[in-house]
Amino acid sequence: MGIIEKIKEIEAEMARTQKNKATEYHLGQLKAKIAKLRTQLLEPPKGSSGAGEGFEVTKYGHGRVALIGFPSVGKSTLLTMLTGTHSEAASYEFTTLTCIPGIIHYNDTKIQLLDLPGIIEGASEGKGRGRQVIAVSKSSDIVLMVLDASKSEGHRQILTKELEAVGLRLNKRPPQIYFKRKKTGGISFNSTAPLTHVDEKLCYQILHEYKIHNAELLFREDATVDDLIDVIEGNRKYMKCIYVYNKIDVIGIDDVDKLARQPNSVVISCNLKLNLDRLLARMWEDMGLVRVYTKPQGQQPDFTDPVVLSTDRGGCTVEDFCNHIHRSLVKDVKYVLVWGTSARHYPQHCGLSHVLQDEDVVQIVKKKEKDDGGGRGRFKSHSTAPARISDREKKAPLKT
């Protein structure tokens, strides 16, 4: 029996099992088994060279956005509208067969947009090269899930389910659970919040399912069984996702209003070029890019070429800003002067731990090189004169 058949068999057993207090331990074990099997499914098969054909393209720019959706929902048209890169669009499904990159120039930054082939139900199991498509989306900073506004709402649930099956968690934050494997000492279980979804016995059963008998486990919030399994697996990616409803020109205004009011949703029409500017603004807001302008001493700030930082790529502190310019700059920094929204007054003297905000201006003041001879003038500890008399410069004779 293959891995996919085992997963389907366990899913069928979970569907048959009633959910109550008596069966929650059994259901928790089944969830752990499914998670283990899905992790095995993502691993490359043994004996393979690993040099298969993928969709991965070189990272470029200050951020990366992936377009995911069913075939023929307008992903290629959206890429062409936003970037100017031509991606073939036609009236039949699976027009795009590989990853096509484009660059969005927005607010003095470059954002890479990837047009991926359409995925279908069962993509997490490898149908329609779905696994390669989802692997590329894992390497992006944000996901745009393109949906057809005229189709049913079920498409959104299907895509979310497929992405969650391969370890992508959309619009969620990592659970506040501390987990550490140990060599000896058994399982240490603690919680700083009242737990309503799991208890100590269920946690022990799930850990034993993973053959973990020595570990430290601390719950800082009321987490579920799925959260605990995600922490134990350790390969989950938590990403922001914007649900983009295309083709709003073919539905009524009441339906458009209903879709637009849903959380993390933007309604657009590529055909009539409607609301594309709002999509770009929302994308910029969710990516959290921070532009920092440099100011040389005694000169005007350079507003042409900002240094772009982000929380996901390195951080937004002054130290990260210095590392972005040059690795050796941090040890030479005495202090920095900051103008902008992160400063309390202009200019503010800041250290390396100061967090910068968008459109701040930074001037770096470096440490002065120390003189080898302590003191100045006649208070010098030793003379700077040449060691040999013959090396001294002879002064011109005084005029009398």
Describe this protein's structure.
This protein is an alpha/beta fold. The protein folds into three domains: 3-43 and 175-233, no CATH class; 63-172 and 237-287, P-loop containing nucleotide triphosphate hydrolases (Rossmann fold, 3-Layer(aba) Sandwich), CATH 3.40.50; 289-395, Roll (Ubiquitin-like (UB roll)). The protein has helices at 3-16, 24-42, 75-83, 130-138, 154-165, 200-209, 225-233, 253-260, 276-287, 318-325; strands spanning 63-69, 100-106, 109-115, 142-148, 168-170, 177-181, 187-191, 215-219, 237-246, 265-267, 289-294, 302-310, 333-339, 348-350, 360-366. The longest helix has 19 residues, at 24-42. It holds the Pfam family MMR_HSR1_Xtn. InterPro entries: Beta-grasp_dom_sf, DRG, G_OBG, GTP-bd, GTP-binding_2, GTP1-OBG_CS, P-loop_NTPase, Small_GTP-bd. GO terms for molecular function: GTP binding; GTPase activity.
Task: Provide a brief overview of the structure.
It holds the Pfam family TGS. The chain is of the alpha/beta class.
Highest-level CATH class of the largest domain? Alpha Beta
CATH architecture of the largest domain: 3-Layer(aba) Sandwich
CATH homologous superfamily heading of the largest domain: P-loop containing nucleotide triphosphate hydrolases
* Rg for CA atoms: 29 Å
- Residue-averaged pLDDT, rounded? 83
Count of structural domains: 3
Are there runs of 5+ residues with pLDDT below 50, and where? Answer: none
Query: What coarse outline follows from CA principal-axis ratios?
Result: extended
What fraction strand?
A: 15-25%
**Biggest β-sheet: count, sense, barrel?**
7 strands, mixed
Based on secondary structure, the structural category is: alpha/beta
CATH topology of the largest domain: Rossmann fold
What's the end-to-end separation, in Å? 112 Å
Helix content percent band: 25-40%
The ordered H/E elements are HHEHEEHEHEEEHEHEHEHEEHEEE
Number of helices: 10
| Strand segment count | 15
GO molecular function, one term: GTPase activity
InterPro entries: Beta-grasp_dom_sf, DRG, G_OBG, GTP-bd, GTP-binding_2, GTP1-OBG_CS, P-loop_NTPase, Small_GTP-bd
